[in-house]
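SUBJECT: protein chain
CONTENTS: sequence, structure tokens:
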Amino acid sequence: MSGLDILKHSWRMVWRNKADAARISVVLLLLSMVVGFAINLALVSSEEFIFSIGPVGLALMQVLQNAFTVVIGGWMAVAWHRFVLLNETPTGWLPSWHGSEVMLYSLWIILMGIGILIALIPVFAAFVPIIMQIETEAAPNMGMAFVVSVIAVVFVTFLMIAMMRLSPVLVSRALGQNLSLKQAWRATGGSSKLIFGVFFWLFLIATGIVVLVGIFVAILSAANLWVLLAGLGVPAYFFGVWLMTLLQISIMTTIYGVYVEGRELP
């Protein structure tokens, strides 16, 4: 079994069940995007509104928006995990609300996100001298910048692998179970190379898509086909966000099924 096998299985899982995947995620994803767009539009378009709520109000709005996004994402993920692992089929265009599971899932997302930020503090600190050189209009030390960048990429890669190895903690909360961080790490022992392969193929695919989209946008822009660009771009953007979201959740589901439940890929 390789990272590509995990990725292909996750892709087939989404595409084979695309009708159920749409019922689980489309409305929730649209709701999250619309709310986020509305809040950002209100902040960008009205300076008076920003001054009226002040820094505290602005920070509170951002916190509430992020919390809303996390809960919506948790709702979607819990529904998909339960659909795949418990055969809990959606009956409408909103998945069942499992309150305690969704809130615990969301809480763990926040806690793991905080853990990531703390782990990244040394990376941010390493870039401070380079940023200060640029701000003072001094020529940055390119050798140091290159070394720091390479170390940062390696560190972030290891961090992403670690988070994916710990992802069974999230999936277990969706199923009403309480897998600990230690148990998740032990269960996924030996999977680091496989998970790296998953991220490697995802990176290649995403890069290819970005290049193709860039070429497509450049052609339409050069031809001044702005209406066609908007008409195709918005649905394509939403489809891409939807597919990548479900694919990432499916990868977590697959890792849980294989390493925690002992399932085999078909």
